[in-house]
Design goal:
mainly beta, Jelly Rolls, 8-stranded mixed beta sheet, about 5% helix, globular
């Protein structure tokens, strides 16, 4: 699996009580598949994705993954169906379900997942 085309930053960018501006972070980004951990909330993290293009097929054997589309258009392919998400829409991909996110246009999304999750998942 070649993950070099993704920019995945696992460091927690903002501490509790520290305000941040998501629109500024989006404007400052120029990478086609950018994923930044924004903050930690209890045992989970909130991540910002600024994406366009196609991710690889993968799964997270032990963790669910929440996707919320802020702007753009996100397609999440599952083995048995496809989920289309527009701004304001969200879905939870259950643990161990193979999926492939795709963004045919520039898309901004928020993801909530356990802090220990490996964003690139496992192929399989």
């Amino acid at each position: 699996m070649d993950t070099s085309r993704y920019l995945t930053l696992l460091n927690v960018a903002f501490e509790p009580g520290q305000a941040f501006d998501i629109a500024d972070l989006v404007r400052e980004n120029s990478h086609p598949w950018y994923n930044q951990t924004l903050c930690r909330v209890n045992e989970s993290v909130v991540r910002l994705g600024v994406v366009q293009g196609e991710y690889h097929w993968h799964q997270h054997p032990e963790e669910d993954e929440f996707f919320y589309v802020v702007s753009g258009y996100l397609i999440i392919e599952l083995e048995d169906r496809t989920i289309d998400l527009r701004p304001g829409q969200a879905v939870v991909v259950p643990k161990a379900v193979r999926h492939r996110p795709r963004a045919p246009e520039p898309t901004v999304m928020l993801m909530v997942e356990t802090a220990g999750i490996v964003p690139t998942g496992q192929e399989g």
